[in-house]
Design goal:
Shape: elongated
CATH class of the largest domain: Mainly Alpha
Bound molecules: heme C
Distance between the termini: 67 Å
Strand content: under 5%
Structural class: mainly alpha
Radius of gyration: 23 Å
Strand order of the largest sheet: 1-2
Helix content: 40-55%
Number of helices: 14
Largest sheet: 2 strands, antiparallel
Number of domains: 2
Length: 241
C-alpha cells in the first residue's frame, strides 16, 4: 500500500493515471450518489469547484479540470471515484486538504458522486438535482418542519404555530398587519402569500420598522428549493389569524 501511495499521488497529477488503475491499486468506489452530493456540499464545496454541484471554491484544484484529461481518455467513473476516495483518505501530507474528512461509506458516497460528474457536461437531473434543495410537498405541515428544521427560522422568529420564541427578527404571529402596510404592499406585493414569499427570498427589499438589513440570510432561494419555499409560505399564511 505504501508503495502505491506515492505512485498514485504522482500519477494523480499526470495523464498516466490509467497505468495505475490497470494495477488495480485503487479500490473501486460504489456509493449512493444522492448522499454523496449532500456530503460534497457540506464537506468539499467550500474548497473545490465542481460544476454539477454548483460549487465555486478555489482553495483546492477545480475538480472538473483535475479529471478532464482522464475523462477524455475514457477512464471510467468508478475508477475516478476510486482515486477520489483514496485522495480523501491520503491527501498530500504537505498539502492543505485535511485528511480523513469523511470515512467509510460516506467517503465512498462522495467519491462516487465526484467520479460520476467531474468533467461531465450538463447538469444533475432527477433525485440528484433535488439532493441538496429537496423537492417537497408544499403543505403547511411540511412548511412547519422546514421552519423549525433546515430553515432554522425559529431561531430568530417567534411564531406560536411553530412553538418558537426567537427574538432576532420580528414576531411572525402578526404578518397580516405587517403585510398590510402600504410601503410593504408596494414592494412585497398585495397578497399575504406574495408578501411572505418576498420576505423570504428578498428579505432586504423591504425592512420592517425597527429592524436592520444584513441579519436574515438572503440566500434562501439558493439553499431551499422552490417547493420548500412554497411550503413555508403555506405554513406562515395558514398560521395567521
Ligand atoms: C480546506 C480545503 C479543502 C477541503 C475542505 C477539501 N479539499 Fe480537496 N484539496 C484541497 C487542496 C488544497 C488540494 C490540493 C492538494 C493539497 O494541497 O492537498 C486538494 C486536492 C484534492 C483532490 C486531488 C485533485 C488533483 O488535482 O489531483 C481531490 C480529488 C480532492 N481534493 C477532493 C476533495 C473532496 C472529495 C473533498 C470533500 C470530502 C475535499 N477535497 C475537501 C483542499 C480541500
Ligand atoms: C439570523 C436571523 C434570521 C433567520 C435565520 C431568519 N430570519 Fe426572517 N427576519 C430576520 C430579521 C432581522 C428580519 C427583519 C429585517 C429583514 O427583513 O431583513 C426578518 C424578517 C422576516 C419576515 C418579514 C417580517 C415582517 O414583519 O415583515 C419574514 C416573513 C421572515 N423573516 C421569515 C423568515 C423565514 C421563513 C425564515 C426561515 C426560512 C427566516 N425568516 C429566517 C431574521 C432572521
Amino acid at each position: 500500500m505504501v508503495k502505491s501511495l506515492g505512485r498514485i499521488a504522482t500519477l494523480m497529477a499526470g495523464a498516466l493515471i490509467v497505468v495505475a488503475l490497470a494495477g488495480c491499486a485503487v479500490k473501486h468506489a460504489n456509493g449512493n450518489l444522492v448522499n454523496g452530493k449532500k456530503l460534497f456540499a457540506s464537506n468539499c464545496a467550500s474548497c473545490h469547484t465542481l460544476a454539477h454541484a454548483n460549487s465555486t471554491g478555489t482553495v483546492g484544484p477545480n475538480l472538473d479540470d483535475a479529471f478532464r484529461q482522464d475523462r477524455a481518455d475514457g477512464v471510467k467513473s468508478t475508477s475516478i471515484a476510486g482515486l477520489v476516495s483514496y485522495w480523501i483518505q491520503y491527501p498530500n501530507t504537505q498539502g492543505r486538504m485535511p485528511a480523513m474528512l469523511l470515512k467509510g461509506q460516506d467517503a465512498e458516497d462522495v467519491a462516487s458522486y465526484v467520479g460520476a460528474v467531474a468533467a461531465v457536461a450538463g447538469t444533475d437531473t432527477g433525485a440528484l438535482a433535488a439532493a441538496v434543495a429537496e423537492k417537497v410537498n408544499p403543505t403547511p405541515a411540511v412548511g412547519k418542519q422546514i421552519f423549525t428544521g433546515v430553515g432554522s427560522c425559529g431561531s430568530c422568529h417567534t411564531l406560536s404555530a411553530a412553538g418558537t420564541t426567537g427574538t432576532v427578527g420580528p414576531g411572525l404571529n402578526t404578518l397580516k398587519a405587517a403585510c398590510a402596510v402600504p410601503a410593504s404592499q408596494r414592494i412585497r406585493g398585495t397578497t399575504l402569500e406574495k408578501c411572505i414569499e418576498t420576505a423570504i427570498t428578498r428579505p432586504y427589499a423591504y425592512i420592517p420598522p425597527g429592524y436592520a438589513p444584513g441579519i436574515m440570510p438572503s440566500n434562501f432561494s439558493q439553499t431551499l428549493s422552490p417547493s420548500q419555499i412554497q411550503a413555508l409560505v403555506a405554513f406562515l399564511s395558514s398560521a395567521q389569524k
